[in-house]
Input
Amino acid sequence: MTSGYVKDLSALTMLASGVEMPLDRQDDLVTPNDRFFLCHVEPTPVVDEQGWELAIAGDAVSRPTTLSRADLQAMEQVDLRCVIECAGNQRQLFEDVLNEPLNRRPEETELRWTLGGVGMADWRGVRLKDVLELAGVTPDAHHVTPFGVDTSDEEPDGSCIPLPAAKALDPDTLIALEMNGETLPVDHGFPARLITPGWVGTYSIKWLQRIEVTREHRWVSRNTIRYVMMGDAWADGDWGPARGPQITEHPVRSSLALPWSGATLSAGHHRLHGFARSGETAIVHVAWSCDDGVTWHDAELLSPSQKFAWVRFAVDWDAVPGKHTIMTRATDAAGRTQPMTQPFNDGGYLFHMVHPHPIFVTD
Output
């Protein structure tokens, strides 16, 4: 994979077709551009801004429209602080914590993400809703499908995944032109990418080239065979042409910013940090335990609680020599709390259960 803008590869972990930033290297609330995780199907495409245009068409628009980057910049610009997280982030924990072997889909190459397939940035751009309305989106629109310029054997016409019209028309769904106050980096989708807040990263299509709006339900590889839940827990459902229910919003989850799968600390007082997030809903509480969940203590929330963003939290712990595990458990504003266990799925997606952080404390 090409990762042209990354300057600090010592802070990143190379995966089969992705670059993970270990969560213990996340030392601030917002993830810098040159340390934001990467996940591409193919090498990074280089798009010439001068010749680039975004086309909006389909049977559910009345005014097919083509916009340049300058046209998008001339529209009202909005800001959004938002976490982007790979659907397979923490996949390795299924194997490490639940002893469930991975790679059960021979046709897929599963990235063995640990804790670092996630980051938060300040995005700036135009509302997708405004672009769709400019093209005359009709009331009976069902699916809005963005296409990127990157292709693969599964997606010869460009990477794509349909969005329900309601999510596409949500004012928080953006076409981003900037990331953390800078022009969108090449590896993150220049000249324009979608930001679909609260949903798994595959919906935030990079290197946009066109958007198709249709009255009919649209089936593509990403919502039939790739980003769906498959396994014993879903075997009895009727999912139509899909192999299982579609993956959309992120669940509530939290992790300490410690090396996986273990950290070494000296005895004494430690202030440990971590990050909690929950899709479209703000985090309101994080608890922690150092006795396998027998007793729980309140963690301190160090950043504002707001939807689409993660919360940085702190745990104050007096460590004594020996082997220990610390667990964290987050709750969001909808009352959802991390479960103590969860069923395995064949893609290793959405690992979000309470998990142990092994720590060895020296004298």
